[in-house]
Amino acid sequence: MEYSLKVVEHYTSPRNVGKIEDASGVGEVGNPVCGDIMKMYIKVEDNKIVDVKFKTFGCGAAIATSSISTEMIKGKTLEEALALKNTDVVNSLGGLPPVKLHCSVLAEEAIHEAIADYYRKEGKLTEEEIIKKCGLKKHSSES
Amino acid sequence: MNIIYLDNSATTKMDERVVEEMIPYLSENYGNPSSIYSIGRENKKVIEDAREKVAKILNCKADEIYFTSGGSESDNTAIRGIAYANKKKGNHIITSKIEHPAVLETCKQLEKEGFEVSYISIDEKGIINLEELKQSIKDTTILISIMFANNEIGTIQPIEEIGKIAKNHNIYFHTDAVQAVGNILIDVDKLNIDSLSLSAHKFYGPKGVGALYVRKGVNFNKFINGGHQERNKRAGTENVAGIVGLGKAIELAYEDLEEHNKKIRELRDYYVSNVVKRIPYIKINGDMENRLPGNSNISFRYIEGEGLLLNLDLKGICASSGSACTSGSLDPSHVLIAIGLPHEIAHGSLRISIGKYNTKEEIDYLIESLVEIVGRLREMSPLWEKVIEEEK
Could you report the per-residue pLDDT of B45-67, keeping only the tens digit for each? Predict the structure, then answer.
């Protein structure tokens, strides 16, 4: 399997690995049976993501997509972070092998789940509004 | 960077003596073995010499050996060839769930063509359930195909018992011995094996050449139509250099068998015992007794195999995994699933297969690298985080 240099760089020295103890929002997607789990922690201040950390169980592509997507949303507003598409992640990695594209979808979902978790804790929006704003799949937070 | 090659079940580095033996047949000795003039006849002779060498090792007759392009072709030829040629006797085939794809996919194809196939289960050590095998036998059973030793977990099957069962029921017995030949003494006569596949590159020989043994009297259809080569059973101008290499490689493998196996087994046991000592939350897959000397298969829990392989590769270490991510599908290895491993543990498996060129220094380097990489990947794993929290 051929990975781009950028993917190799990110899985060898992933950025923002770890956990935020007092996170504003946490999103976890995937399951161990499929071989991929991503957990994203965000710290939000004034509608901005001021810090982000991740933990990932998965292949090289899963680690690289987690790593680069944390870089891409750090310092961004929540709306900007929600606008990030999995294709943007793939492009900034210089492409992914076709069988690994689902890893980038997982990264996008993890970000959306983390932001949804923040909104829930904040308590200003109804669940329906959160689902709509974050583009969540039904029950995705339980899967 | 130095390459530390620990994937000898995938392929092996050619023995220099094999390379030397082959070189004349890649240059000045170019005659077609079917030609009548001297440089053709001489090449015919070296093919027959190689055939003798293989026959001597397996304890069969030279005219029971057919040269092929490798293990997959041998398996395809044997299974399809025997199935088609014996269709009138019955349409039932018995195999196991942990066969190589060369066998499993051939059986699936035969199912589409109207054959019936029983896939026998195995226990948690990877050994075939002999009772289930016996109970699967029907009046229509024409062939049993069970691998000699497994490529992923190294388990050696009770071939002698299977041979007896097959013989008692007048059923042909084929064995995919690609992983076994070069590592284990095999006497096809004593073991009642009717057909056997082997591949040269698994025992320090060249790629692209293998052999099929078929006992005299066993009917099988040819796989490749064309000329009269290989006693009219396998058409195509012979791979002379490859066949010469195979002959030399099998001879060398059995010359030094005991000595190499002792060294290889010691290195494997040294590796496994150190991993057990130094890395928690692991699972050793397969059986430690009935096992190929160089094979080890260990699951490192809470991490995923591809990430492990990529990090080992950065340190120059070549190994393999049964993780889904390395197979190009979403399912982990069918062998690890068949021995009952949950998907998440199968995803974290690492196969190390040691060969005759490996050294203790290399294994030490592997162990140190694993301690570091497994630790780092676990630090990154949300599953490990849960384990640590629960331990608190």
Answer: 999 999 999 999 999 999 999 99
Within a domain: residue A143?
A: no
Instruction: Please give the pLDDT value at position A9.
Output: 92
Residues B298-334 pLDDT 10s: 999 999 999 999 999 999 999 998 876 655 566 789 9
- In whole angstroms, how far apart are CA B76 and each of B141, B155, B197? 18, 22, 10
Q: In this predicted structure, what is the pLDDT of residue B324?
A: 65
What are the chain A neighbours of B281 within 8 Å (beta carbons)?
none
Length of chain A: 143
Which of 91-110 (A) contact B at CB < 8 A? 99-100
List of domains in chain B: 16-255 (3.40.640.10), 257-373 (3.90.1150.10)
- What sign does the dihedral A59-A64-A67-A68 (CA atoms) show? negative
Q: Which residue has the tokens 């583009």?
A: A135
Range of the domain at A80: 5-134
User: Considering CB atoms only, which of A8, A17, A59 is closest to B307?
Assistant: A59
A–B CB contacts, 8 A cutoff, strictly below: 74
Pairing of β B172-176 and β B141-145: parallel
**Does some domain include residue A142?**
no
- Does A103 participate in catalysis according to the annotation? yes
Average pLDDT, integer, range A90-98: 92
* Catalytic residue, candidates A37, A103, A134, A136: A103
Tell me which residue of B296, B345, B259 sits closest to B7, measured CA to CA. B296
| Within-domain flag for A141 | no
Where residue A79 sits, what CATH number does that domain have? 3.90.1010.10
- Residue A34 annotated in active site: yes
Question: What mean pLDDT is reported for chain B?
Answer: 95
- Residue A34 inside a domain? The answer is yes
